[in-house]
Amino acid sequence: MKSIYFKFVLTYTIIIAVGFLIFGTVLNNLTENYFISQKQTQLVREAEKIATGLALWYITGFLEQDRLRFEIRFLRDYLNASILLINKNANVILNSDEQVYIDDFNLRKIRDKVFEGEIAVKKLLIGDIIKREYLVIGYPVVINNHIISGLLLITSTDEIRQTLKMYNRIIWLVTLFEVLVVLIITYALTQRIITPIKKLAQASRRIAEGDFSQKIPIPNNSDDEISELISSFNYMTEKLENLEMMRKSFISNVSHELRSPLTSIRGFVEGILDRTIPDDKRDFYLTLVKEEVIKLNNLINQLLELSRLEWGKINVNLSEFKIYSVIAEELIKFEKRIEEKEIDVSLQVDEELVVKADRDLISRVIHNLLDNAIKYNKVGGKIYIYSEVVNGKAYITIQDTGIGIPEKLQKLIWERFYKVDESRSLENGVGLGLSIVKEIIKLHKQNIWVESEEGVGSKFTFTLDLK
Ligand code: ADP
Fold first, then answer.
1. CA–CA separation, 327 vs 339, rounded Å?
2. DSSP 445
3. Which of 376, 416, 428, 456 to mutate to test the pocket of ligand 1 (most atoms within 8 A of CB)?
4. Residue 329 and residue 288 in one domain
5. 71 CA to middle of ligand 1, Å?
6. What would the pLDDT profile of 89-142 be if each residue is shown by its tens digit?
7. In a domain? residue 171
């Protein structure tokens, strides 16, 4: 496995090396051009002076071979450049350095230019065995408007090359140093990344094996992406742990809810069969058996409904309908129980208020909320049902004057099988009604909440989209 450290170092080294290569090449070219053009200007200036001097000596009759030879050698040492004089036929008539030899072809080219009155500038490789680069300047020697000779100044570019070599060496040293620094910094940086990643990998494996107690400490004083990842991971672990707990408690709740009616049914049926229950009480106990069977049936139906809602197997068929009509229909279903409990219902819903939702699902919500409002109400209590429209949304409220829910427990009532008080869960509630309500409202991307005071009553409000 190639580590992150290796990949980082490789990438950075390549970037630095390429960067310095480009930088070095550009710098090399620029410096070379600069030095050569400097040298060239200097040589042209000197050539001009010498050519003028030569012309002057010629006119004044001062020019004489030995003297010229002497002067030219002197200038050669002074300028550090060989000096040549050529004639119209490109023959060398004077040379300060016998070793410096320009081949005929190039000599003729320079001659052509110089005898046209121009300054020739050329870079030539000179030397028999080891060829070295030379800069050659050709300058016309003019007497009485006639070009009588070509003056050639030849100097090696070695000096410039040496300087460039030194520059290159410095660039390479800096590159090497940079790579070293990168190695160290990357090591420190990647350690910061790798250590938590390794911990995350180990913890994930343990979670997969069912150990949800994994928590990874966030490094001190850090709020970077790694810390974010760790805190998301810890959050995920916490959620998984909750989920696992919920799964376990769900199974135990289901078993419990199934077991008690089944135990009753078994007891009654056995009593009837072995005649412990006398014949005249048979109908009574069979009615109890029937009630238990209905209870079981309800429980299974609610469980199925909840599971379908949670698995998204229920399609939300949106339609526009009057919410009043749904509430009225549901109230009729509860008429008998409302009368039995002598509850007074106040219905203040706008009869014309049209909402956009799944009609069947919303009737289920109202059904469950009304069921609770009756179930947990006191005899002779009240139920207020009203609607409001705020910021383009319908707010539907069902309020009762029942036993209320303690504040601390209000957020728990939406959980599956949660009952505020087992003994209070009259009339066979199993604790699934509000979970179903919550799921339906969630499917509609709407909200539901409760406001309640113990002993005073509860108020459930949910929102719906208008048409
Ligand atoms: P259940 O079938 O037990 O009524 P729900 O999911 O409908 O289950 O409600 C969960 C719990 O919330 C109930 O057991 C009850 O304790 C509490 N609760 C729900 N509605 C009301 C209400 N209107 N007044 C008082 N308590 C309520």
1. 17
2. T
3. 376
4. no
5. 120
6. 988 888 888 777 788 899 999 999 999 999 999 988 887 777 888 999 999 999
7. no
